[in-house]
Design a protein that fits this description.
108 residues, mainly beta, N-terminal domain of TfIIb, 2 domains, four-stranded antiparallel β-sheet, 2 helices
């Protein structure tokens, strides 16, 4: 999947291009970020760099098992949609949730 983000200050504009690929056989998400920083006043590129991240992903049932193996009991799983979170909206996680947050407590 390709996407991009942009932010600006009075002096700089930062653009981040994102390219992600998910491998369902390994449950690994490869994400490549390309950053471009521009001087807004002079309309000149002042820096560019790239980062690559490998992110291991887990299903909700795998997360529940990992928590249990480490002495914790899962209480709830939430969808961490950043746009909805900024609005204060809380949604339960589902099978298709991209970012999941677990709430857990010590098992007794």
């Amino acid at each position: 999947m390709k996407s991009w983000d942009r932010t600006e200050t009075d002096d700089l504009k930062i653009v981040r291009l994102n390219l992600s690929r998910y491998d369902p056989h390994t449950n690994v998400l490869d994400v490549k970020f390309d950053f471009y920083i521009t001087d807004r006043k002079h309309r000149k590129l002042v820096d560019e760099f790239s980062e690559t991240h490998k992110v291991k992903t887990y299903s909700i049932s795998q997360m529940r098992g990992l928590l249990q193996q480490n002495g914790l009991k899962a209480m709830a799983f939430y969808d961490v949609d950043l746009v909805r979170a900024e609005k204060g909206e809380v949604m339960p996680a589902s099978f298709s949730t991209f970012r999941v947050m677990a709430v857990a407590k010590l098992a007794r």
